[in-house]
Amino acid sequence: MNTSPFQKFMRILLGLLMVLAGIGHLTFQREEFHEKNLTSLLKNDEYPQIRMPQVN
Fold first, then answer.
1. How far apart are CA 46 and CA 48, in angstroms?
2. CA gap 13, 19 in Å, rounded
3. Using one digit for the tens of pLDDT, what is the confidence trace for 1-56?
4. Residue 8 and residue 11: Cα distance in Å, rounded?
């Protein structure tokens, strides 16, 4: 399969960007994980209350 120099350049560029994204995901772009337990979920107002319909 013959590829043009442009295709080869774009493949290398795409590969480098994917490596950069992977390294960034594991290092400098990583956000700390904050554990949510049941009490914090119940006290937190950002989660809407789910109400079940009444069955007659």
1. 6
2. 10
3. 789 999 999 999 999 999 999 988 888 777 665 566 655 555 655 556 667 777 77
4. 5
Residue 46 is classified by DSSP as T
Residues ≥6 apart with Cβ < 8 Å to 49: none
Closest CA to 35 of 27, 22, 44: 44
41-50: buried (b, 16+ CB within 10 Å) or exposed (e) per residue? eeeeeeeeee
Alpha helices in the chain, H assignment, sequence order: 5-26, 38-43
| pTM strictly above 0.70 | no
Q: Which amino acid, residue 27?
A: T
Distance between CA 34 and CA 30 in Å, rounded? 12
